[in-house]
Amino acid sequence: MALFERRHTHYITSIVCGLTFALLGRFAFANNALSGAGGLLMLGFLVLIPTGLGAITEHFSPAQPSDSWSFIFRSWGAVLLFLFTAFIFNLEGIICLIIIGPLFMVLAAVGGVLYRLLTRNRNSGNHKTLVVAGFALLPFLAAPVESQFAAPDDFRRVENTILINAPVEAVWHNIIRVPPISAQDLGPSLVDKIGFPRPVEATLSFEGVGGVRHATFERGVEFIETVDVWEPLRRISFSIVPNTATIPPTTFDEHVTVGGRFFDVLRGTYELRPAGPGRTRLVLYSQQRLSTRLNPYAGLWTDFVMSEIQSRILRVVAKRSEAEAARATSASIAAEEH
């Protein structure tokens, strides 16, 4: 029993050491000195901290056979404990934690593998100490160097298409202005569960170039959309600017704020394409700016969220347009019968 308890004490110690390192990294990269360079969105935090966590967790774990992969679960335990701690103490918003979670899990396992490779066939405690010290110090040594480089801009396009059993006239009517949308109209979605506000409605000041749409979402989120392309029954396109005066600071975490330094939605376009008698293919696409040091990974999440939001709006438009077309058909039939 003593051996069993001692082994588990070692495991707990290794996980706590990994957690402590991750928390230290979180506070270090969130300070004012590094916030201007990206802070928690720097590679030093997003890549080197979880890699170091995996190495540290493995270093303080009991010796295991070289072919044992159990160390992965210890590093994952440390990551999950870090994410849970950050959530409980409100260190980060749930959206950010969900986004970095998979990245941390993978890189923590990579850190454990690298530590094993670098210390394989080396029984010297000094060598292992030097290796783990290198993993622990690297994020903080790399941060001043990384801070000298600006994050690259990545301009991304997300497109969604839906086939609607309604003529272009009915569809056009339902896209230039979008009457209030209920939660039942939208249906459930993962983006709701992770904290993104639902779309509510879109108004239009007047029809034509220069018209201003106000697209509102829940929790005070509003976008001002100025029409610069107006082709009746064919296309409407507009620039998008978030109305920061109406968006409460608690709606988004600073790292995912629309219109912030890391992410912005720039344009939106609806295109209507005839798809046969009484049918319309509606295309909605948007352009976003992503400015992080890990754009390929962050882009997976922003593309998913934007695609889900756009897809839900298209489904609402389709449902309303088809209902409107059905009413028009019924009225026409009734008129013919009389």
From TrEMBL:
<feature type="transmembrane region" description="Helical">
    <location>
        <begin position="94"/>
        <end position="118"/>
    </location>
</feature>
<keyword id="KW-1133">Transmembrane helix</keyword>
<feature type="transmembrane region" description="Helical">
    <location>
        <begin position="36"/>
        <end position="56"/>
    </location>
</feature>
<dbReference type="InterPro" id="IPR023393">
    <property type="entry name" value="START-like_dom_sf"/>
</dbReference>
<keyword id="KW-0812">Transmembrane</keyword>
<protein>
    <recommendedName>
        <fullName>SRPBCC family protein</fullName>
    </recommendedName>
</protein>
<keyword id="KW-0472">Membrane</keyword>
<feature type="transmembrane region" description="Helical">
    <location>
        <begin position="68"/>
        <end position="88"/>
    </location>
</feature>
<feature type="transmembrane region" description="Helical">
    <location>
        <begin position="12"/>
        <end position="30"/>
    </location>
</feature>
